[in-house]
Every structure is written in structure tokens, then in C-alpha cells.
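Hi P.,

Sorry for the delay on this. The queue was packed all week, but I finally got your sequence through. Input first:
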Amino acid sequence: MKIEKISSRVLLACVVLIVICFGAFMTIGYDNPVGDNNEPMLTDVIMWLMYALIAATAVLTIWSAIRGAQNSKGNDPAATTGVPGGKITLFTAGLTIVSLILGWICGMGEKEFTASDGTVTSAGWVTVVNVFMVSMGILLVAAAIAVAVSMTGILTKNASK
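Then the structure:
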């Protein structure tokens, strides 16, 4: 089976699983008032789905990096595909570090947070949450731009056939 076919089937399976989980979340026990708040019954399902997707992404990323290094064995993949993988990797790592730093700068000076049930979250943890929220926003925009660039085929037009 070709890699494109496998990739499209895995993508379809992920999308179907996500749609089913979010559909169940929104329809089964969504209106579940607890005190003054709404506490949907299937919040744990959404949380575990995200944990599973993150774990699968991490494992597949490591596997892909190892497999790519084994396959290239000193060859320059940019010469055959036209995609400068090394530059993309460095840019991605740099953007991740920059986004975390920007998140930390935006979160400096946060005060502790008290939830409606009286739970107090220290200012340090509020800053950590803020760092990751800002970083996720920046990386989401970067991923959307990367997908758009990839779909245009700009990077592969210079590939030798």
C-alpha cells in the first residue's frame, strides 16, 4: 500500500474519531449543572482523546525522524524532493522556543487565580498555563501557514525528477 494511501486513511480515521468524540461530548450529558457551573459528563473523553493524539504524534514524529535519517544516509533529500528538511527542522525548533519565550513574557506578573469552588492556583502555574496558551496560538498559526505553503507545492517545484 502506498504511503499516500496509508496517510489519507489514517487522517480520515483521526477525523472520524475526533468528530465522534466531540459529537458525543456535545450531545450526551452536556447540560450537567453542578452548582453555578456546567460540568459536561464526557469531559474526560475529550481529555483522554487529546492525550492519545499527543502521544501518538510524539511517537510517530520520533519514528519518522529515525526512519528519515536511515533512508537518507548522507544523501541530500532536498536535491530529490526540493524540500529543505534541515532548514524546516531548525525553523520549527526555533519558532517553538520563540513562542515559549513570548508566552512567558506575556504571562509575567500574573496573580494567583481563585476558582468559584475556592480552589486557588498559584501565580506560577497561572504563568505556565499562559505560556502554553500563547505558544499554542503562535504554533497554530504557523501550522496553518505551513499547510497552505505545502498545498501550493512551492517548495517542491525546484525538485529534480
